[in-house]
User: Which sequence fits this backbone?
């Protein structure tokens, strides 16, 4: 039983280390998809869907790292 | 996409990720072998590799078989999985570069495993269940990440799956041969750099394929890939700088606490 629990934790841990990154990724994709759908009549704007996805995901990563850094600073003994 | 580029995209991350994971597994197998003998851990390793092979076949074959029928959704699913996995490795590597999370210390892990195995006692001249299961679990649990990457990267088609399997297999053989020759934990392997490279590549492919799955067209088609990779590297470098300025001395927090 302990082995199966370890396997499950490992499989889940493959994809989710920090819940906010996983959730943010799942939100960023439909946002970029929605942009493409809304901007469909304007091909020049429609093509910004990919760069928008990149910016959203990198922003998510930086914000998450900033919050992690601040949390680590609070944990660090002075 | 050119066939050679497609094969390289499948083989290189699979090879680099497999080196990282098999080095970690080797440390535990080595600890078992040196404290309890080599017969049981060798069979444990073989059994785990066979299990991983079955996992790759079970999940990889349908992906390739139904690739054409579900091409768009398939790109989206693979893109999401690669993004989740890649961002996770990228984040962890950045935190380690910045000193927020302690680096993976194979020597320390080896000493810890040896102490734990010695405390369990010996079973001389008999089949060593403890040695078998210790090795089996170590190789299987570390190898699950390899199996995931092999299937996700190889899902572009039969040739890509073969390329990613070859990448992982070469990494396994290389790790075991070097490990067997040196008979000590492979502390010289730059695990964090390798994790960063894999994380950056998988995040890049995840963004590219995820967007294609949403019917987003890239203006430069496949030529966008190196630009995305460059962008991911620049953001990562900036993040390391941001964190080192926030915590100049680092924090060395345990990986599970962030």
Assistant:
């Amino acid at each position: 039983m302990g082995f199966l629990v370890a396997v499950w934790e490992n499989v889940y841990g493959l994809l989710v280390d920090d819940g906010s990154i996983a959730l943010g990724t799942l939100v960023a994709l439909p946002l970029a998809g929605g942009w493409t759908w809304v901007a469909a009549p304007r091909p020049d704007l429609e093509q910004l869907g990919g760069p928008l996805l990149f910016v959203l995901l990198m922003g998510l990563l930086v914000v998450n790292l900033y919050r992690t850094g601040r949390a680590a600073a609070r944990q660090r003994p002075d | 996409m050119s066939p050679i580029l497609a094969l390289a995209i499948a083989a290189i991350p699979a090879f680099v990720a497999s080196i990282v994971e098999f080095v970690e597994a080797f440390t535990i197998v080595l600890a078992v072998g040196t404290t309890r003998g080599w017969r049981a851990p060798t069979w444990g390793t073989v059994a785990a590799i066979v299990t991983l092979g079955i996992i790759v076949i079970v999940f990889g074959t349908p992906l390739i078989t139904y690739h054409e029928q579900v091409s768009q959704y398939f790109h989206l699913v693979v893109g999401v999985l690669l993004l989740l996995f890649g961002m996770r490795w990228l984040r962890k590597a950045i935190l380690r570069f910045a000193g927020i999370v302690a680096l993976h210390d194979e020597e320390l892990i080896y000493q810890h495993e040896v102490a734990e195995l010695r405390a369990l006692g010996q079973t001389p001249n008999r089949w060593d269940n403890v040695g078998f299961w210790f090795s089996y679990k170590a190789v299987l649990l570390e190898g699950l990440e390899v199996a995931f990457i092999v299937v996700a990267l190889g899902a572009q088609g039969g040739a890509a799956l073969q390329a990613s399997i070859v990448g992982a297999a070469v990494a396994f053989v290389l790790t075991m041969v070097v490990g067997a020759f040196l008979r000590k934990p492979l502390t010289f392997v730059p695990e964090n750099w390798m994790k960063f490279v894999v994380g950056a590549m998988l995040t890049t492919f995840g963004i590219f394929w995820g967007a294609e799955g949403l019917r987003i067209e890239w203006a430069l088609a496949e030529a966008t890939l190196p630009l995305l990779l460059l962008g991911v590297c620049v953001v990562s470098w900036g993040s390391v700088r941001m964190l080192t300025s926030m915590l100049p001395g680092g924090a060395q927090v345990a990986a599970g606490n962030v």
About this structure: Chain B has a mean pLDDT of 87. Residues 89 and 195 of chain B are 6 Å apart (CA to CA). The two ends of chain B are 38 Å apart (CA to CA).
